Amino acid sequence: MALPKHIETRLFINGEFSESSNGKTFDICNPATTKLVAKVYEASEEDTNRAVAAAKDAFPSWSNLSVEKRASYFKKLANLIRESNDEFAALEAASMGKPMGTFHDAMMCASKFDYFAEAGYLVQGTTSVQTPGFLNMTLRQPYGVVAAIIPWNVPLLFLASKLAPALIVGNTTVLKSSEKAPLTSAKLATLVQKAGFPPGVINIITGFGNVSGSILSHHMDVRALSFTGSGRTGRLIQAAAAQSNLKAVMLELGGKSPAVIFEDADLEDAVKQTAFSIQMNSGQVCMANSRIYVQDTIYDKYLEAFKERFSAVTMGDPLDKSVNHGPQADAIQHKTVIKYLESGKQSGGKLVLGGSAPSDREGYYIQPTVFSNTPEDATIMKEEIFGPVVNINVFKTEEEVLAKANDTEFGLYAAVFTKNIDRALRFAKGLEAGNVGVNCTSPTTGRDMPFGGYKSSGIAREGEPTYSLNNFLETKSVLIKIS
Ligand code: NAD
Fold first, then answer.
1. pLDDT (mean) for 46-67
2. Where does the record place the Aldehyde dehydrogenase domain (predicted)?
3. How far is it, in rounded angstroms, from Cα 296 to Cα 301?
4. So where are the chain's domains?
5. What is the mean pLDDT of residues 303-327?
6. Which fold has domain 11-253+457-479?
7. Element (H or E) spanning 411, and its range?
8. Is the Cβ–Cβ distance between 361 and 340 less than 8 Å?
């Protein structure tokens, strides 16, 4: 599949496209070929402030519209997104290496706008007559300007998960895309314009953490900020909020997710699911099961089957629809994964599959890699690698493995495979994670279930029917004295 002839690379502020105020651009290179794809405008401090000012100006009239009117723009946008599916897929493939044959992001994005178009009436306040002489009530009201900062691994889904709920309840928005994958957000901005959203309601800027991300996090007119990305950046954003206006901050951060396989599990299914979890998107998934614990009685059988399944990927150009294993997103990600592979080789664990970049291929590829019996305190057991790299360790008892699974600062997703209902429920309760899969693992999620992390994997929950909507609303108590 070829790239579109025209690639949008400008900033979308107040309903119009513009170059950056200082003319600065950054390069997007194809991670499969390392060749230049586009020069993208980088938002300056002035541009970022202009985007926030546009959102602030647009807020009074947008928040006064009916839900139906706001929803009418969502429906137009969702249809335009679906029509552009192949273009979105090609842009993502060429900028961050996601194989086109595995691309569902645009459909998921459109579906979020469709869902929230219907969900505006779901959030309501409460009333109380429990205080004599009073009728009291709460009002749920939008914050005003909401900022969204997204990562590069599933950009369109995160864009919609933040913008759609924030907008439908009356906020206006500024989204900063990731410097590694800005092209689909910029393309979506062209569709926002086509759908006829009033100027300033959705502003989409491209740039780095420094300048534009940091300006948004410190901005006094941004009242809420929803972030998905690394823990390191999440902490900087939380600190910026504390140093500025104490804006509400939602953080969806990284993981080091365990999957526990007991001897009574359906082995074939467990292998299939756990291998897909760490292979999908070349391991660049926050909830990927990067630590697998297998009971000693089935360990050898599981390991052999896992290696066979995990190595059978079709590696190649992500623009080719038959490929299911693309490169890492860019040179930085590739270098980071290689560094972890070297650390793993020194850790005392055993390398049993892969372990390097393929020698016969240009671009930022990594072989599917398995380490076995890595010491629990090794760096590759503790830190998020964000690559197709998994540790498969052995355990004997339930108590031992629950302690090991929970011995992490992360808590995004955990999985247990067993046919024993009591044990399954003990693990559902005992695993320290915001999401627990029983006989399933990530990326399995429930559309009407909250998504988010325990511990350092995040703050707040996103999801339907109302979790995300509640993130973007203030609560006001109104006390009415009845004479
Ligand atoms: P990142 O933290 O490097 O960047 C994320 C975004 O933050 C980018 O847009 C970046 O420009 C911006 N940013 C960087 N520094 C900033 C600063 N000082 N202030 C404000 N913004 C700043 O993360 P990434 O590499 O893009 O994404 C990978 C990470 O995201 C992984 O840790 C992954 O686990 C996590 N992630 C989490 C979820 C989830 O739902 N929990 C989903 C996907 C990815």
1. 98
2. 20-478
3. 10
4. 11-253+457-479, 258-452
5. 96
6. Aldehyde Dehydrogenase; Chain A, domain 1 (3.40.605)
7. none
8. no
- pLDDT band for position 19 (cuts 50, 70, 90): very high
Pair 297, 263: CB distance under 8 Å: yes
Q: Which of 179, 252, 462, 464 is catalytic?
A: 252
pLDDT band at 2 (very low <50, low <70, confident <90, very high): confident
Q: Which of 156, 208, 228, 442 best tests ligand 1's pocket when mutated (most atoms within 8 Å of CB)? A: 228
In single-letter form, the type of residue at position 330 comes to: D
Report the run of H or E that residue 462 belongs to, with start and end.
none
Residue 222 CA to residue 241 CA, distance in Å, equals: 10
Q: Do residues 88 and 191 lie in contact, with contact meaning Cβ atoms separated by under 8 Å?
A: no
Probe residue for ligand 1, chosen from 150, 156, 178 as the CB with the greatest number of ligand atoms within 8 Å: 178
Alpha helices in 84-179 (DSSP H): 85-96, 105-119, 155-168
pLDDT number for residue 322: 96
Query: What phi and psi, each to the nearest 5 degrees, are found at residue 252?
Result: -115, 110
- DSSP string across 212-229: IIHHHHH-TTEEEEEEES
225 lines ligand 1 (CB under 6 A): no
Does domain 258-452 match CATH 3.90.1640.10?
Answer: no
Q: What is the pLDDT of residues 333-352, one digit of tens each?
A: 999 999 999 999 999 999 99
Distances (CA, A) of 336 to 29, 220, 360, 383, 389: 18, 35, 20, 11, 12
Q: Is residue 452 helix, strand or coil?
A: coil
Active-site residue flag, 464: no
Q: What is the pLDDT of residues 99-140, one digit of tens each?
A: 999 999 999 999 999 999 999 999 999 999 999 999 999 999
Atom of ligand 1 nearest to the CA of 180: 26
Q: What is the pLDDT of residues 429-458, one digit of tens each?
A: 999 999 999 999 999 999 999 999 999 999
Which distant-in-sequence residues (6+ apart) come within 8 Å of 314 by Cβ?
Answer: 322, 323, 324, 325
pLDDT one-digit tens code per residue, 194-233: 999 999 999 999 999 999 999 999 999 999 999 999 999 9
Q: What is the pLDDT of residue 177?
A: 98
The alpha carbons of the chain give a radius of gyration, in whole angstroms, of 23
Q: How far is CA 472 from the centre of its chain?
A: 18
Q: Can you tell me the distance from the alpha carbon of 291 to that of 355, in angstroms, rounded to the nearest whole number?
A: 16
Cα gap 44→56, rounded to integer Å? 18
> Mean pLDDT for the chain?
97
| C-alpha 69 to ligand 1 mean position (Å) | 33
pTM of the model: 0.98
Q: Report pLDDT for 182.
A: 98
Q: Which helix (H) or strand (E) holds 416?
A: strand 413-417
∠ CA 30-34-35, rounded to 5°: 75
Same topology between domain 11-253+457-479 and domain 258-452: no
